[in-house]
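We modelled each protein-ligand pair independently. The example shown here corresponds to the S-adenosylmethionine entry; the chain sequence is given first, followed by the ligand as SMILES.
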Amino acid sequence: MKKKPEKESSSSTDQPGNSTAANYHIPVLLRETIEGLSIQPGGVYVDCTFGGGGHTRAILEKLGAKGRLIAFDQDEDAKRNLPDDKRVVFVPHNFRHLHRFLRLHNVLAADGIMADLGVSSHQFDEAGRGFSTRFDAALDMRMDQRQKLTAYDVVKTYNELQLHKLFEQYGEVTNAKTLAKTIVQVRNHVSVKTIDTFKNALREVVKGNPNKYFAQVFQALRIEVNDELGALKEMLQQIPKLLKPGGRVAIITFHSLEDRLVKNFFRRGSFDEPEGNPFINEENVNELKIITKKPVEPSEKEMKENPRSRSARLRIAEKVMMV
Ligand SMILES: C[S@@+](CC[C@H](N)C(=O)[O-])C[C@H]1O[C@@H](n2cnc3c(N)ncnc32)[C@H](O)[C@@H]1O
């Protein structure tokens, strides 16, 4: 799958967003995810990425009075979308701490765990968050505003090689090396604290369509600032031990780097690529069984109604009964 920059928003507005619960985020692959989780009415479910709560609400509809749902989101803004429902507990932290917080809430094992990765439409549309190339604001991009590292810190302090690698790997920026070199040259005499100053300072380096180019640059910065791949790996590694036998995990990804991690982990219980790698331990016991042989993609209808869903891929696995 080619790494396209994530489509920014489901609302095509060019105005800074005043998002309400209703337009915070349109859930993607909703029916497919809920069906894939095969929900038990009395079960315990975890939504690792609550956001606007679209998936959470659909799970709650299938849960009975005894069911429970633990919803994680590291962005405080998501809290405003919480339903008034005693079955739900909100955890305002990174899902990399899944095990710790589930234990804190007396959940030893879950019947289903889901994650709908990346950024919400609200985060893209809220100008001040600094995720969107459409607005001028501080170069921020933190999902968790308690965190120190911002996109400005990355641009200001990373060395040329670090910048080159991150633009190449996380954004597939064609001239990542030139971009990194230019940033290092300009940052000492031009302040790149804001999105407009950053974009203007790099005008000469842009290749092709500037909107597309900066979307790739911003995607790379965002992945780095939020350590998105590191958090995903840590979360995946905890899943087999946190699922009950027969329990399901459903993960929606938005670019190939994430999808590859999920695919490999579901297949082999590790992140290693098999081909030609003599260090892969084929003896590794995998407690997960793949349910979706191929990733589930949105229908034409969904992509038309919600362009942000375009690059979504859903993979589902089940914890085996006995290994
Ligand atoms: C694509 S949105 C989820 C939308 C949600 N499924 C819905 O239907 O509204 C992703 C959300 O996950 C949160 N998020 C992303 N990575 C996270 C992480 N590592 N830990 C906790 N929350 C995370 C983001 O802050 C964002 O609100």
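The pocket of S-adenosylmethionine is lined by residues 25, 27, 49, 51-55, 72-75, 78, 94-96, 116, 118, 120, 143, 231 (CB under 6 Å).
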